[in-house]
Fold this sequence. Notes:
- It is built from 11 helices and 10 strands.
- By secondary structure, the protein is of the alpha/beta class.
- Helix 3 runs parallel beside helix 4 (123-130), helix 5 (157-165) crosses helix 6 (167-176) and helix 9 (216-228) runs antiparallel to helix 10.
Amino acid sequence: MTTKTSTNPPSSEEVLLSTDGPLAVIRLNRPEKLNAFAGTMRDVLAACLEWVAEHREVKVLLLTGAGRAFCAGGDVRALSAIRERKDEAAFRGLLEAGRRIIRLLRCLPQPSIALVNGVAAGAGFSLAMGCDMRIATEKARFIAGFGAIGLHPDWGLSHTLPRVIGPARALDVLLTARPISAEEALDIGLVNRIVSSEVLEHEGRLLATTLAHMAPEALARTRANVLQAVERSFEDAFDAEIEAQLACFRTEDLREGLAAFAEKRPARFQGT
Length: 272
């Protein structure tokens, strides 16, 4: 893997951004604290997502954590200090930073895949749910611990979770704050697949590479319409599908795809 330097992508010791061909990898890198957010990590993560969005040579984003955790959420000690000061403005700033990150993930032109290598708790759970897909290891644990400390879910979790697993299951997860194992997460549709820890990044890269070789116009429009489907009426969904399909119809990639199908060979999409 090589780290881009030519256009100075944002990075820090605690949030690493690297690229490998059409793939970008953002790695939370505070393993001694289970990659819990602290200091400038939220701002750097947002800047990394903005960089990815601006670089269309990046086709797919992988998001993961260093060490034995994906992300343990926010720094509880820092939150306690804010509460003791009754510093509502500082707390609102943390919430708005979360909104910015999840909005950027949702609005990326590229698909995003969370590689959940361990615990994903609090904001870490929300961050994983902000990605389009999730691959987990058998060691993954999803914990919405907000209610256990007297908080409401944030970083969009009360929006994303019920749309993925349904309202009843989402309430079970959110109200009980119980850990969700990788096996249960797969059973309820919270993750797409489970793989062993040893092959997590390999499997993530295989999926990302498959997506990276799809026709870009079709990929982007399919992703956008699926993400927006639960918020549209039946007729609006059909209108959006027809508009997207017509846009794909106009591409040279469709001609190539049809020719490749007829000739029984892999398609060579060019993004035109």
